[in-house]
Specification:
The protein is of the alpha/beta class and 423 residues long. The protein has helices at residues 18-29, 44-47, 50-66, 80-90, 111-121, 138-155, 173-181, 201-209, 214-227, 236-249, 265-279, 301-306, 344-361, 376-397, 407-419; strands at 3-8, 69-73, 101-105, 126-131, 163-168, 184-188, 254-259, 287-292, 311-318, 366-371. The chain contains 15 helices and 10 strands. Strand 4 (126-131), helix 6 (138-155) and strand 5 (163-168) form a beta-alpha-beta unit. Helix 1 packs across helix 14 (376-397), helix 9 (214-227) packs across helix 14 and helix 10 (236-249) packs across helix 14 (376-397). The mean pLDDT is 97. The structure holds 5-phosphoarabinonic acid. 5-phosphoarabinonic acid (PA5) is lined by residues 75-78, 132-134, 137, 140, 193-195, 277, 404.
Length: 423
Amino acid sequence: MIKFSYEESGIKDLSILQSEIEAAHNALHNKTGAGHEYTGWLDLPENYDKSEFDEIITTAKDIRNKCDCFLVVGIGGSYLGARAALEFIKGGLHNFDNKPNVFFIGNSISPMSLRQLIDIIKHKDICVNIISKSGTTLEPALAFRVIKDLMQHKYGDEASKRIYATTDRNKGALLQTARENGYKTFVVPDDIGGRFSVLTAVGLLPLAVAGLDIKALMNGAASARREYSSCGIENPCYQYAIVRNLLLRAGKNTEILANYEPRLHYLAEWWKQLFGESEGKQHKGIYPASVDFTTDLHSLGQYIQDGQREMFETVINIEQVDSDVVIRPSDCNDGLNFLEGKTMHWVNEMARIGTKNAHVAGGVPNNLITIDKLDENSLGELFYFFMKACAISGYLLGVNPFDQPGVEKYKKEMNSLMVGGEK
Ligand code: PA5
């Protein structure tokens, strides 16, 4: 199970928020809080649609058999969870040793990256998963138009058997397109918003196609649901929510999620959307930032050590690695022969502890989240831990953690420029 430690956060007494945490717990579990109509993720690990889950596994096998490249078209909550999970389990180089190759597109408006990808894959066998709850989100919609043309040109009438749509059950532009073209569809449930949707078909279909064990992922989330169900300050998930709110009240308005393993880079991207979109409203919230250590110690490390004292760190620590490198004697003249016989995992661990000591001494409070290893079970737990902590934290903060009114503002401005034909 996940271990959460706030020993080096400077926060001693969580009971200050005892009654607030009880109110937040009751609001979430009794579905009386703001945005309660979007809390379907809370019980999802136990009560998910089992027949759709089986259909995802069957469809994923079929897709794996018939394509070299699987394109996942989506953005935000319809993208980051699957990418985070794929990289967490298989790393950033997954396409070098995994079939089918999985590419994420429709998450920017860059014509160059879309063209580059098309040039790479156009002669391969392709399947596509277009994921959009609304069906009208600009980035995936633009990319899908191009990919749909490519598929029709390449496969003719057979194209529709290679395109899978994950969208609203009953309505929306993508559902209509899927029906008109005969695409197989999977559901984004009505009561689950994008950033809480990784354990629905949104995340599960791409992950099953990539060869991940999605049953273990759901089992991990189900264990977390049981583990973090109690109402009280002994619940580690609630401890995390309390500590970050107490740190905010003490003036720490930026949280840096730090990792020492590149496979967590996209988990941090998912986490940033989760917390940023859930809490950043009504001029409130903790700004969610992230760093990949030790890489970023050689860039942002200076700021964290000596810059403005407005941030705290939450470090994700992985106890076991699935492969390691033993340091051997060498004539490299790098002064590192004293490390002979040690492993790189041990060195990474020393870097983590040393950095924590320096940052705490420099005035950066430090939380620690420890997981066993980078497998599907741990990841399911972690996804659930963060989603529940985020919901509780949002309620402690006094916001609706399940809406995102602010993201409409830039879209209006952008659309008025485009409709007006602004150059
Ligand atoms: O969390 C959210 O609501 C957003 O990130 C959406 O998931 C994102 O904008 C994509 O929306 P859609 O699935 O409708 O294309």
